[in-house]
Write the structure tokens for this entry.
Amino acid sequence: MKCNHKVFLAAGFALLLAAQGATATDFVVGAIDTIGGTTYDWQLGGPPYRMICNSPDYGIHVLWMYSASTQANFPDRNMRYNFYDYAASAWNWIDPDYMQSGLNVFTGRVGYGNIDADPSTGVAVVSCHAGVPIHPDVARDLAPGAGTFEYCTGLPVMDAYLWPFISVGQNSTIHCVCIDDASRNMIHYSRIADWCNWDSARGMAAPQPDPDFPCHNIAASDVSHKVVLTWTFSGGSPDPGFYRESFDGGTTWEFPTELPWPPAYGGDTATSFHITSLFPYYDRQDRLHIVTGVMPYVGGHGFILPADIWHWCPDNTPNWVRIHRAECDPAHLQAQVGYNAIYACRPTIGEDSRGRLHVAWEQFDSSNVEPGPPPLLRADIFYSHDNSDNGQTWVPGVKITERNTTSHRFPCIIDYLSGDTVYIAYMIDLHAGFFVQGGGPVTNNPIVVHKLPLMGIEEAPGAMLRSLELSARPNPFSHHTSLDYALPGPCRVKLEIYDMAGRRVGQLVNRFQVAGRYSVNWHRANLCPGVYVACLRANGRTLTEKLTIVN
């Protein structure tokens, strides 16, 4: 049987970049699974939407907008799906050609939808807009990760509505927010409370202004009947943001509420939301969170930097807390960020089983330029988490992707981490200019899931570590093992996996860590049964542990 080695960041992905004529120079924390690809490089126009979600008893659902076409009208455009099966410790649809990985959800040309998982059944629910007249459609999997979908068309009730984004709440109710096609404005809400019956669309912005652009978003609680809609008014000066909540599953709604401005800037510099702002989320304590990117607004004009990432929660005092500021010397800003973006934008939020909040966003690098015309900045993915205090304080944001000749765009962090790994899905654009927008060549762009280990387990109070330690449990193993290690002092740490020929097949850790005990899960993925070696390097010492994979 022929087995393929796991592709890990940065070692394995460096080979892919080299094949594309690029180079990789920096090591990055974590590992990458390449789960699909697309030539449709403009994945969304406004804020991010839920594109990766967890069904804790079954696995991880990921969605992206797919095409393999080089034609400007993308006749094969579809919403494409992949599933990581916890039981098998593998993705369901992986092909040696990543453009063939995953499967199409719908049967015709569709686009611009998102995904959520039914909290009652664990199945994936996917939205899109399609057809003439344009309208929303929804697909529901028959079992978690099965890839066999049944369909619920919005015709005729939802004729002439588009950009439908969904969230699944209690009692399997599918909540949908969309906008009017004729005006490309006028935010509307519908729901499917019982399959397959759509409610009539109803306008939701009044008495506040409508979006004036597809910058709407939605979230439903997994633990109550709460639903929230968010949007920004892109015709403002500066642009305000709004939210509207229902506490009974979308039957009745509170009045729209304008969000207060984050105290981002001062003096004559106002704060403005951006069309990529406002990603809402209800945590497992049923608290509402909104993360957003904001921009400075001076003299009637908005500027792309310094750009901030902020977190808002009405249960906190203060409600707003800044997560990150992205800035550079404007003299070094020699290129554009491109269509519908600011220097740091499109944040998404999730949580882990201990209640810690996690945020990821895209951020541009002024020193990494795609040659033009016009010259365009390439982007990286950044990540932060709070200090287990409901978002009242945050650790400094860190870049998790390496600087190279690709651009990392449209991240979405998993909604709920039931294990010890953070999952972030995004697209690696092999050319920073969007072919969809007429701004670059067509390329086969990988869709990846970046896996980051959670911070190490702290040593019990009063305990003292005297030596470097490394062990694996279970060992031998068939699918995955836990690599446990201990550091007696702060140092730079590398934890890597090698085969018996001395080839590195995985890099799990490459960063500075403080003293303590740590644990990292390692999944064998496509590695053949046999003997491998875990190698821990820290503070000038090396420890090894033999690992045995069995069928």
